[in-house]
């Protein structure tokens, strides 16, 4: 870890003040939303290097390539899998299993969203599930609001359950060495409880209004879910590769294989299957198509964010913040855990949880000695994960998936305003955080 | 040095083009499209100022469920079962509404003094017919299509 002040600092300024200034400026740009988030952190990372706080080599040392590989690998896996129509198949299948009853649809589609969000990224999940939902709701002649709200909440809650469900978990798992199985075992049960509690709230709120005619339900029951599958062979191949990847995530920790390597290897295998046996021109077109669908902006955002946070850590600013945090919590693990949970939940409702978690990880790591060592700190990491992921439900801008669904809602004539969302989002956030608090207490401190 | 006579859009444009008003209904737009076998019709306000176009694509969107016609909507729909009654029901719901919400406003126009090559390039890349509007008040004064250009070229022969 580089703690020394590097030479050639801009105008001889104090590196800590300079790094803090650059960081705050970048954060201000992120919060203002006047500059694209990738551009804002590119600007910040560039300033960290150009001002002499860190060298280019240091900047690249600060990038967590395990996180980058995991993100990229999963994007490729999802990009190919979604072509098979499996997401739509499951959505239509559960709707028919619920006999097209609106109350059943509310519960089943939200649960499908939560499960998919646990294994694929939340944005992809809502991009694929919400259009099917809107179609079904239109056929049933119902308001789309209950279903859209349920799916937003479910995507953020479901994403909390696994290492790969939400970027904050990927970062925490990678930085601290928590495995796929660790996440499922520690967060899976509480996520199920929170999902059920939120469903109950929505059910009590809307169940009475969810009535449709037998004719409308019959129209939905006429859907042929099997026809949603566009390529059965590719679907089987995707399922096999996804099973291998999940197995790799679970077993990898025992053989020193990091999750990023597993995801990239799985992505490579699926790309091979997707292109092999075709002409050179066709292979090239398919590879180009998949790679062009990668979210390059997100990948560059993460890389530059890591560089920027590394600059702040190199000057010792994050250690200082860590000391202040310990002063505030008195070095008590329980107080630090709950403070982290609530701070992360409230902050993530209003600001992007990725930069917040990227900053909090080194801050919390610097407090390990005062909290009894890295091993003892596990509850704090679960608190950070729960707070950061579930906090996204607080406001419309709390998570990218929320904004995506709001876009769909507006285009379908069911606009969701910031206030309207918050009126339900804040209670959901409070319920989720209270349940998380009780769970963490019972599991680690009772 | 010889001065080359560049041809401008005003020299060949047809005028006045068939158009709709913002407050015309969807039903009136459909009748015009059917009667004139047109795929896109310019739309003006009551001062004859160009505001956009209503296209066959936009009108087709009105026949579809919203989740299929919207941006990022469903792409594979073979699992659905629909009949003509379903389509008619959706059309009936919007038939008497004004066309204003359904027009495309991001239409590239040319001016009477624009070089013809500009219009021809637009026809090649994007449009079936290019509206010609006054540079100062954006009033619709004409239109240029491939047929317009070909007729002008034929006259030279």
Indicate how many domains the architecture of chain A comprises: 1
- Mean of residue pLDDT of chain B? 89
Which class of secondary structure composition applies to the elements of chain A? Answer: mainly alpha
Count up the helices of chain B: 7
Give me the Rg of chain B, rounded.
19 Å
Percent strand of chain A equals under 5%
Helix content of chain B: 25-40%
SSE sequence of chain B, one letter per element: HEHEEHHHHEEH
Shape of chain B: elongated
Largest interface: A-B, 24 and 14 residues
- Overall geometry of chain A comes to globular
What do we call the CATH homologous superfamily of chain B?
A: CBS-domain
In words, what does this structure look like?
- The complex is a heterodimer of chains A (446) and B (157).
- With 446 residues, chain A is mostly helical.
- Chain A has one domain (10-62, 86-228, 295-445).
- Helices cover 75% and strands 0% of the residues of chain A.
- Chain A has 21 helices and no strands.
- Chain A has helices at residues 15-32, 37-50, 56-62, 65-81, 86-97, 102-119, 122-140, 145-159, 167-176, 180-206, 214-221, 232-252, 259-275, 280-292, 296-314, 317-329, 333-350, 353-365, 378-391, 400-411, 418-445.
- The radius of gyration of chain A is 23 Å and the shape is globular.
- Chain B is α+β, with helices and mostly antiparallel strands and 157 residues long.
- Chain B has one domain (9-156): CBS-domain, CATH 3.10.580.
- Chain B is 38% helix and 15% strand.
- Chain B has seven helices and five strands.
- Chain B has helices at residues 9-12, 26-36, 56-63, 66-69, 84-94, 116-125, 146-156; strands spanning 20-21, 40-44, 50-55, 129-133, 140-145.
- Chain B has a three-stranded mixed β-sheet with strand order 1-2-3.
- The two termini of chain B are 27 Å apart.
- The interface between A and B is medium-sized, with 24 and 14 residues.
């Amino acid at each position: 870890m580089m703690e020394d002040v590097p030479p050639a600092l801009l105008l001889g300024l104090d590196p800590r003040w300079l790094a803090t200034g650059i960081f705050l400026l970048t954060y201000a740009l992120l919060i203002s939303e006047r500059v694209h988030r990738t551009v804002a952190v590119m600007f910040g990372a560039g300033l960290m290097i150009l001002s002499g706080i860190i060298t280019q080599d240091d900047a690249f040392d600060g990038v967590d390539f395990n996180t980058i590989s995991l993100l990229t690998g999963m994007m490729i896996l999802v990009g190919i899998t979604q072509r098979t129509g499996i997401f739509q198949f499951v959505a239509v299948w559960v709707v028919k299993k619920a006999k097209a009853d609106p109350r059943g649809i509310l519960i089943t589609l939200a649960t499908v969203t939560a499960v998919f969000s646990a294994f694929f990224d939340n944005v992809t999940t809502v991009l694929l599930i919400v259009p099917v939902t809107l179609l079904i709701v239109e056929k049933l002649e119902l308001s789309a609001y209950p279903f859209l709200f349920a799916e937003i909440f479910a995507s953020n809650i479901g994403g909390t359950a696994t290492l790969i469900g939400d970027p904050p978990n990927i970062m925490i798992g990678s930085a601290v060495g928590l495995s796929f199985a660790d996440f499922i075992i520690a967060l899976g049960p509480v996520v199920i409880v929170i999902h059920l509690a939120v469903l109950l709230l929505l059910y009590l709120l809307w169940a009475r209004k969810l009535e449709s005619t037998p004719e409308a339900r019959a129209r939905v029951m006429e859907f042929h879910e099997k026809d949603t599958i566009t390529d059965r062979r590719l679907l089987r191949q995707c399922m096999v590769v996804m099973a291998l990847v999940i197995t790799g995530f679970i077993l990898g920790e025992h053989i020193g294989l990091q999750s990023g390597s597993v995801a990239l290897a799985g992505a490579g295998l699926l790309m091979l299957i997707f292109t092999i046996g075709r002409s050179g021109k066709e292979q090239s077109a398919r590879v180009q198509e998949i790679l062009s669908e990668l979210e390059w902006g997100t990948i560059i955002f993460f890389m530059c964010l890591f560089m920027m946070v590394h600059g702040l850590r190199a000057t010792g600013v994050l250690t200082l913040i860590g000391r202040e945090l310990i002063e505030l919590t008195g070095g008590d693990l329980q107080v630090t855990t709950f403070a982290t949970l609530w701070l992360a939940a409230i902050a993530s409702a209003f600001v992007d949880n990725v930069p917040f978690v990227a900053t909090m990880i080194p801050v919390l790591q610097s407090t390990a000695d005062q909290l009894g060592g890295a091993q003892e700190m596990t509850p704090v990491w679960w608190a950070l994960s729960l707070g950061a992921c579930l906090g996204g439900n607080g406001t419309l801008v709390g998570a990218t998936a929320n904004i995506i669904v709001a876009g769909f809602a507006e285009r379908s004539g069911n606009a969701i305003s910031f206030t309207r969302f918050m009126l339900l989002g804040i209670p959901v956030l409070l319920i989720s955080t209270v349940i998380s608090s009780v769970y963490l207490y019972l599991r680690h401190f009772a | 040095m010889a001065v080359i006579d560049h041809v401008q859009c005003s020299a060949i444009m047809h005028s006045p083009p068939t158009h709709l008003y913002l407050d015309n209904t969807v039903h009136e737009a459909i009748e015009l499209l059917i009667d004139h076998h047109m795929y896109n019709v310019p739309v003006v306000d009551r001062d004859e100022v160009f505001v956009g176009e209503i296209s066959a694509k936009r009108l087709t969107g009105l026949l579809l469920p919203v989740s299929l016609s919207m941006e990022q909507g469903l792409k594979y729909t073979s699992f659905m079962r629909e009949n003509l009654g379903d389509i008619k029901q959706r059309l009936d719901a919007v038939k008497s509404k004004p066309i204003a919400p359904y027009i495309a406003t991001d239409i590239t126009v040319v001016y009477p003094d624009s070089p013809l090559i500009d219009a021809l390039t637009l026809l090649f890349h994007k449009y079936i017919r290019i509206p010609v509007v006054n540079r100062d008040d954006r009033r619709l004064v004409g239109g240029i299509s491939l047929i317009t250009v070909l007729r002008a070229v034929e006259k030279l022969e």
